[in-house]
Amino acid sequence: MEQTSEAKPFLHTPASQGSIKDLVKAQREFFRTGKTRDVEFRVDALNKLLKILTNHEKDIIEALHRDLRKPQLEAFSTEIAYVLEDIRYVLKKIKKWARPQKLGSPIVLMPAKSRIYSEPFGNTLIIAPWNYPFQLAVSPLIGALAAGNTAIVKPSEMTPYTESLLARLIGEAFPREYVACVTGGAEVSQELLEEKFDFIFFTGSTKVGKIVAEKAARHLTPVCLELGGKSPCIIDKNIDLKTTCRRITWGKFMNAGQTCVAPDYLLVDRAIYPKFVAELGKTVEEFYGQNIQGSDSYARIVNEGHFNRLTSLMDTNKIAFGGKTDKKDKFIEPTLIKDADWSDEVMDEEIFGPLLPIIPYDSLETVLTKIAERPKPLALYVFSKDSRFQEKILTRLSFGGACVNDCIVHLANPDLPFGGVGDSGIGAYHGRHSFDLFSHKKSVLKKPFWGDATMRYAPYTDMKLKLIRFFMG
C-alpha cells in the first residue's frame, strides 16, 4: 500500500493522575445535567461519529497499515465497514430501544402497568486492545453513546498510529466532558482503573481481564470483559474439503492470526487427516502465493515481543507448511503444525498468531472430553455435513459463540450477541445487545388510586387469607 505520509505518529503525553481525576469529575458533572438522556442528543452524537469516521476512511486505513501492515481490504471490511454499519443499524433502532418496554402484570396487582425503563449507567470506561485497534475501540463506544452514557476511551499504545488518530478524531467530534480519548501506556490504564466508573468495558487477555475485574470490584462497578482463549475447530470426515480449507485459512490467517476468535487449533478426523493437511497447505499458497512475505494480502505481527513469543512456540520437527520468519519485518509465515498433541507447549495458551496446530482424532467423545476439561473458549467451529454431528458438539460444549461450516462470520450479525463465558469473558454486545449492555434496566410498576384492594391491609382475617390464597396460590 502506498504511504501518504512519512510523519511519525503524534503520541499524546499520558495524562497525569490529577488530570484523569479532573476528566472523570467533568464527565460525571456533564452526565448529571441530563443532556445524554435525551434520545435526540444521542442520535446527533452517533451521526457526528458516523460523519467524522466516514470522512477519515483513508486515514484509518493508513494508520492500520502502519501499525499492523493490515491489508486495505481487511482494514476496510473488518474494521471500518463493520463499525459504520453498526452505527447505521443503531441509528435505525435506537428510538424504539429507548422507549419503555411494556410488560404484563399479574392479576393480584391489578389495576397496574408494568414497564422496563432503559437508563444509562453514567460514566463509562472503554479499554481497547491492539489487534483490531479501531473496531474494538469504536464498537463499544457506539453502545455507550446509544445508551446515553459519557465515555473515556483508552486505545492500545501498542498501535500508536491508530491510537493517535483515534485521539484526534474523538477530540474533533466531541467535547472532553462527554467523550474523551486518553492515550498512554499501561500506567495510564492503571490510573484510570483507580477511579470510580459506573461501567467498564475491557477487551484483552484473560490475565489482564482479571486485574480489571478486581479493580472494578472495589467500587462495585459492573464490567464487560471480552477476553479470548483457545477456540477449537472440529472437522468431521464428512465435509466439502476445498470449501472447508478456504474458510479456515481465511479465518485463521486474517490479520496474521491476531484475532481473538480465530481458530486456535484444529481437530481433524484421522480418516481424512493427510488429505486435509495437504489441501490446507495448498490453500494457504493459493491465498498468499509462494513468496508470502511479498504478498500485500498478509499482515505483520504487532511487535518484537509477540514475534519472539510466537517463534518460541514453533517446533521445527512438526511443521507441515510454512515456518519462515523475519524478525526485522515482524513477519511469520502461516505455519501448519502437523501431528500436534494436547501436551505440546503451543497448546498451553491462546496462540494469537499465524501458528495452527492440527491434531488428528479417532473418537469424537475423546475430543469433547478434552475440550470440556479446558477453560471455556470464546468461539467454537464445526465443519460437517452431518446435522447430528453438529448438534452433539453444540449442545455438549460451552463456548461464547459458534459457526457451523464457517469461521468468525457470526460476529457480522448484529442480532447475535458477541461475548464469552467463563475464562473467555463476561457480558455480550453488538447491535441491540450493545444498547442493553450499557443500560440499566429499571423496573417500574404504575398503579392508579382507584381499585384499592383492602385484603392486603391489616387487620388480617381468615377471609383475607382465603382470598390471598385464591389469587396467589
The overall average pLDDT, rounded, is 94
Q: Helices and strands: which structural class?
A: alpha/beta
Query: What's the total number of strands?
Result: 20
Which value, in Å, is the CA radius of gyration? 25 Å
Helix content: 40-55%
The CATH superfamily of the largest domain appears as Aldehyde Dehydrogenase, Chain A, domain 1
Domains (count)? 2
Provide an overview of this structure.
This protein is α/β, with parallel strands linked by helices. The protein has two domains: 17-227 and 426-442, Aldehyde Dehydrogenase, Chain A, domain 1 (3-Layer(aba) Sandwich); 232-419, Aldehyde Dehydrogenase, Chain A, domain 2. The protein is 41% helix and 17% strand. The chain has 15 helices and 20 strands. The chain has helices at residues 17-32, 39-55, 57-68, 72-98, 135-146, 160-173, 186-194, 206-217, 241-253, 273-288, 304-311, 364-372, 387-396, 432-437, 462-472; strands at residues 101-103, 113-120, 123-127, 150-154, 179-181, 199-203, 223-226, 232-235, 265-269, 319-321, 325-326, 331-332, 335-337, 355-361, 379-383, 401-404, 418-419, 425-426, 428-429, 439-446. The strands form five sheets. Strands 10-13-14-9-8-15-16 form a seven-stranded mixed beta sheet, sandwiched between helices. α13 (387-396) links the parallel β15 and β16 (401-404). α2 (39-55) runs antiparallel to α4 (72-98) and α2 (39-55) crosses α6 (160-173). The protein is globular, with a radius of gyration of 25 Å. The protein starts with 16 loop residues before the first helix and ends with a helix. Residues 1-17 have low confidence and may be disordered.
